Protein 1
Amino acid sequence: MKILIVNSNDIRGGAARAANRLHKGLQAIGIDSKMLVQNKYSDDKSVVLPVRRMGSITSELRPRLDSLLIKMYSQRIQIPFSPACVPFSGIPDAVNILNPDIVHLHWVAAGMLSVSDIAKINRPIVWTLHDMWAFTGGCHYDNGCGKYENECSRCPALGSSCSNDLSRYLFRVKRNVYKNIPRLTVVGLSRWLSKCAAQSTLLRDRKIVNLPNPIDTYVFSPFSSQMARTMLGLPLDKKLVLCGADSIGDYLKGFDVLPKALEKIARPDIEVVILGASGVPGQRMGGHRVNFLGKLFDDISLRMAYAAADIVMLPSLQENLSNVVMESLSCGTPVVAFDLGGNGDMICHKQNGYLVDHKGGGMAFAQGIEWLLDNYDSVPLRENARQLILEKFEITKVAQQYKLLYEEILGETD
């Protein structure tokens, strides 16, 4: 069985790391898996780049060209939006050369694949949804809009009041293209996203299955908190609450909620750790000192960050199946998050973390933080966190589930 995993990057970004883990998991159980990417950052020989007649400069220009269409919407909000209209990616040709049995798409935006290119792939397609983009008019998360259940238009993400806007055009393009993809299986990583896809106009008639991302529980495992703090230069005598985000200004990451939550907590022993962003030394959030770790690209550094923290905070307002939650729990660090999206697939309330009613806002989130800190020693939070990941998300177990899916698809095409 030859599987080709297609993703924009190989190891940078949440979707890339998840797709790469599946790639490694499939190889570990004896499946011939390769990974086709637009940008390669590893030295893995089983990760390949498409050969383009115009050279590597094309991969750098495509994301910029793809973003030009949304520049005309001056009132757009800071929610990721991908038109995916730039043609001639070279990906279908690369797929034909590699000749896999199944093409497994993951995150293919950022100019990697145009929507029309997907229909040119002449193989059975499995498409893992890392967000909502496959069934919307361009946004990656709809922020509660829900128009994908009928037809996108007057897009809130674009700040558009026009019925025939870019979102409607892109929605109709997808609808027409999808008609020409006869062998498509959709994977929703969380129960929430699987349900959204099943309710969508574009994908409701497709086979939709719920399978998670895998994680290497050997790499992401418990480690001495004191040693991790020493290695990362973090204080040894504070309660450290960690939050991961690519940008502190990202609305959907909940960074307008987090300061409000932290300012409700009067404890002087708390310091905040931010993973994935940089800031000014001495900066404070909600009255508490902030330690910035910047971007950590390797799993060992990430493991140290989770081990150093007493708890991890995920204030995201929409979330699929968060790598941050899975990695943290695998390291034995409990998580507080809103009871939204796929968070409930991994967090068991007051057993390995705390699920917050999203209607409660910052006050409710603060209560979750304090409950975890207050019950840190009285409830086996760390043991429970690790055990759930071992049972449901361990890499070889998940890879075996995908193998069964592939075999079922190939059996149907014989």
Note: The CA atoms of residues 231 and 304 lie 8 Å apart.
Protein 2
Amino acid sequence: MKIQFHLRDASSNNETRIYARISYKGQRLKYYTKHSILPSNWDKVKKRAIGKSRDASYINNELDNFINIVKDEYVNYELNNNRNIPTTETLGALIDKKYKSIERIDPKSVEKKLTFMEYFEEFIKRTKDGVRTNGSITKFSKNTIKNYSMTESLLKDFAKDELYKLDFDSINMNFYELLMAFMNKRKYKINTKGKHIATIKNLMNDATDRGYNTNLIFRSKNFKRLSEEVFNIYLTKDEINDIANLDLSNNSRRDIIRDLFLIGCYTGQSYIDYSNFNKNNIHGDFIKYSRAKNPNVSFKNEINIPIKHELLKILEKYDYKLPKTFSNQKTNKHLKEIGKMVDSLNVLIEINLDGKKTYKYNCIGTHTARRSFASNEYIDGTPSLSIMQLTGHKTEKSFMKYIKLSSKEHAQIIKKTWDERSQNKLKVII
């Protein structure tokens, strides 16, 4: 694909519109951008605005963003249409939908340019108010907003302690290295540092799209979000049964926490989803309810959960009115204490590549329940797509990260499959 920009009237004494000539696989599309410029401020060879003024930088940045939009829409169309290419009419419509939906602020119309931190504050406010979009999402979760606020607080501390002047132009590699060192001093984990960098990149992209920023160093491959795979466990069916068989009648809090944890193991749902189960949700051998986990989804997905005998016993125990849970911190603490009471969980396991070990019960948390459900069903041969319908995973890639099986367990699954094939062949021969 080739995209070049031209002027509608290159001989005009007034500003004239900039249009794009898009060529791909024998197709040509002429598309007018939102921007105009004086021909005297246009480089006919480089096809870009001339000069180092803010206006020129803004226009050139907008043209670069336009190219990215066109290429993204083209590639997405091919991927979703068996590698067929879009017609010029279709591509034009796709560009319209994405390009014209982005709110941009021309620097000429900005009376007062917000400082970096003022923009951050306004960025968070627009996110809370539901008026910010990233192209698909217009309503963000409370956790996203919380993460933004934590990064804002971090940057305020960083600027104060390191005497660093924060503005759009100072978000460069020097800033990146100093901030990483600052977070290292605070002993932040790799994924925590990565989340803060991701927020900063989101902010800078937003400011760039809206015309506040022209500094693109944050898009450098070295200005990257670090991440590492978090060590998580799942509980086998035998270990879950061991927890279920504990006598906790002398401690009502632990008894409740254990029961709620088991419901997660039996259903693959989170507490916020199953806490409202009642008799009206039971339809034969299934529990039916509607889940709208994603705040951007206007409709609710109906979930059908097969009822295990063990699940029914717990629901009946509480007369189908599940008790309220405790704080996540207290719940995790009690789950570890409950796990310590189970002999099968008093085993040492490695928790990192350096060979560090801890007892398995120390790794149990609220999320272990859903992960255990998914992993055990996967081991038993339940199709991934069927499990995903219950766990809420949208892609198989994200789902497979959720499955916590060792290399040996994967090998056992393959051997089981081979054995079943051999048995089937013998049946055919007989």
Note: Confidence is low (pLDDT under 50) at residues 107-111, 294-299.
